[in-house]
Design a protein that fits this description.
Distance between the termini: 38 Å
Domain Reverse transcriptase zinc-binding: 103-187
Protein name: Reverse transcriptase zinc-binding domain-containing protein
Largest sheet: none
Pfam family, one: zf-RVT
Order of helices and strands: HHHHHHHHHHHHHHH
InterPro entries: RVT-Znf
Strand content: under 5%
Number of strands: 0
Structural class: mainly alpha
Length: 283
């Protein structure tokens, strides 16, 4: 269960979401190419036919939607109107399309879907070296959208709110992943292995610290990012195993994370760094 709207899920990864394409906006962006062709490049047979029989040598920006036109032509004109509404005016739409020497479907898609503020956490949660399912859970954790007991309770399901890991406090995102005694000890082992300061601030502050203190192009940054999201994923799965299967924690969870990160790092590393990485991973 995820408490997240579909529209917000369709934001880009660098905006803090999953990068899923919003299909309606993507379809409009693809079809806008025909309006671009009529405005900028009129040398195709299709453009010549449309100019002669549908536009009757009128401007594509001035022609009105007629009820006796075909559905495909009316659809193109509606997309034209949507594009004008997105950029603000017909003049702005004309100038923007004229500035594209070739049709830019990515820019058209961003215009139709709207732009959102970029977030600093994307480079950490969606690093190419991270395991995809770890990226997914870490993104939901950063947004506070996982189905923790407090989120479920706020949506009208009266269930007892007690952390299943420590059994001494109410469960929420901050407590479950950072303030719980079990999670804190877990983080202590991982951060010690990463040779990083042992602190449990909360995911937002952790990601901000990573942004300012971890060098993006150094292999140690990939090592730390991969371990961070792997730890979040492991804590969440451990919580679910206790709730739904009644299983107690395994003593090898830290070793499992170290193994996953080690395999991932060695798969992405170059031969020059191989020995240095092995020494750190085996520390």
């Amino acid at each position: 269960m995820v408490f997240k709207s579909w529209n917000s899920s369709c934001s880009l990864k660098n905006e803090g979401d999953f990068g899923i394409k919003e299909i309606l906006s993507w379809n409009k962006a693809l079809l806008l190419r025909w309006i671009w062709g009529l405005h900028v490049r009129r040398d195709s047979i299709w453009c010549s036919w449309v100019n002669a029989y549908l536009l009757r040598h009128d401007d594509v920006w001035a022609v009105q939607i007629r009820s006796d036109s075909s559905e495909s032509w009316r659809g193109l004109l509606r997309i034209r109107d949507d594009f004008v509404a997105c950029v603000g005016s017909v003049i702005a739409a004309k100038n923007l399309l004229a500035s594209w020497s070739d049709f830019d479907v990515s820019m058209a898609y961003n215009i139709f879907r709207g732009q959102f503020q970029r977030t600093f956490r994307a480079k950490t949660t969606w690093s190419p070296i991270n395991i995809p399912c770890h990226c997914y859970i870490s993104t939901l954790t950063a947004q506070g959208q996982l189905a923790t007991i407090d989120n479920i309770f706020r949506r009208g399901l009266p269930i007892p709110n007690r952390c299943v890991l420590c059994k001494s406090a109410e469960e929420n995102h901050l407590h479950l992943f950072f303030k719980c005694r079990y999670s804190s000890a877990f983080w202590g082992d991982i951060l010690s292995w990463l040779q990083l300061p042992n602190r449990c601030w909360g995911l937002a502050r952790e990601l901000y610290w990573f942004k300012n203190h971890i060098f993006v192009r150094h292999w140690r940054s990939n090592w730390s990012r991969c371990a961070l999201v792997a730890t979040i994923y492991t804590i969440w799965m451990e919580r679910n195993m206790r709730i739904f299967q009644g299983l107690e924690p395994a003593a090898t969870l830290v070793r499992k994370i170290r193994f996953l990160v080690s395999v991932r790092m060695l798969g992405f590393s170059c031969s020059m760094l191989h020995d240095e990485i092995v020494d750190c991973l085996n520390a």
